[in-house]
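Handout for the seminar on molecular recognition.
Each group receives one record of this type.
Step one: identify the two inputs.
Step two: read the structure output and locate the region that could contact pyridoxal-5'-phosphate.
Step three: write two sentences on what you found, then compare them with the reference statements printed after the record.
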Amino acid sequence: MSSLAHSRSYADSHIFHRSLRKKPANIVSGQGITFTLSSGRTIIDASAGPAVSCLGHNQPTVIEAVTRQMQQISYVYSMGYTSSSAEELASLLLSQKPGGLAKAIFVNSGSEATDAALKLVSQYWIEMGQSQRTKFIARKQSYHGNTLGALSVSGHASRRAYYEPWMSHNVSFVDPCYAYRGKADGESDVEYALRLRTQLEDEILRLGPDTVAAFVAETVPGTTIGCVPAVPGYFVAVREVCDKYGILLILDEIMCGMGKTGTMHAWEQEDIRGPDIQTIGKALGGGFVPLSGVLATQNVFDAVSNNSGTLSHGHTFQAHPTACAAAVEVQHIIGRDNLLKNVVVMGSLLQQSLEESLGSLPHVGDIRGRGLFWAVEFMRRPSTGDPFDKHAGYSNRVVEVSQDLGLNILGTLGDTGEYHVEHVILSPPYIVKAEEVAEI
Ligand code: PLP
């Protein structure tokens, strides 16, 4: 067992950590793509936490921007006021109207963003005079957050297990686009995308098309099945089916978005006009201050604005000026330093290194991703498609061993209750250099 993981007792911690048996290592400082533990050990943050710290740690101009904002005004109650930093962030993200997205709601966590998106959809349909549209279709092996609304649209059995009585019965699940495990022998990408399209359409018809409010999907699923880009044509099919029945498309880009795949929005690589509603988070604020958001088209905004004229949702810390000021500076740095290009160039180097160094190892089943968002999926026997079972704990072991070697990566699991997925994610900060990729 890992020395780092087992050297600490819980006795001196007053916090509910994830594990209630061992206190996690204490990170005391960070610089660039590394952080340092209280033991003095320096670790390469090869996953940027859970794909959050897109500019790495200790970025001086973000700190200056945050300090400046706090000196000007440290809190603004968004129910009756706005701030320059929130307005500037929204305009940076939306003035070009990417995919027709035109308006933003800023909240604190990805889960809140998912809840806000679900509530916006519900309000939209009532304002449109179609209050019977109450059903959501989501995907198996999905994660959209841990609040009760977000978990209700998440196809992840073990995360839901303790809360099933709270889960909405207005959600049904279809298969994700997951070629490595889902594509049949001899099936082409086109046939696979068509099969998934048919499955979605059948589900809409089964529910009754005019009762369906929205379809929810991560553009590139992260924590559950690990950085799986859809096969070409899948999202074109999804967009077409949603349009055919007038159903809203929500794309969750909380993990995969804000530049991680090499374009600001992952859906820009899918040949679709964009979603009706998009959620963003994690890299949006670069982890300097918590921040997530919902982006919506003018059409969605107008439906609410032209009818009740009031957004029936809000939080005390919504559109927090300090968080928005950090995100504005993150956006400036990404643009100024041409970091999306670095994501593409370093991403292909990372892909090459992963394939060369891990591709032929016995339990490596699949290596996939896009930009700087990569996963390695483990199988008990890749040649026969024999997966690890739920209790194998293989990816946790890989994370522990990596940590002992000075490398932080993310180990997460996919779990529908029907089948289990073991993988680790590497998603280094966008500032990563070639020699650092080699070291990772
Ligand atoms: N959606 C996706 C795709 C995520 O990966 C996550 C978190 O991992 C969330 C939503 C929830 O975000 P948060 O943990 O900030 O609430």
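Reference statements: Residues 3-59+338-439 form a domain with the Aspartate Aminotransferase, domain 1 fold (CATH 3.90.1150.10). Residues 50, 109-111, 114, 143-146, 218, 222-223, 252, 254-255, 281, 292 surround pyridoxal-5'-phosphate (CB under 6 Å).
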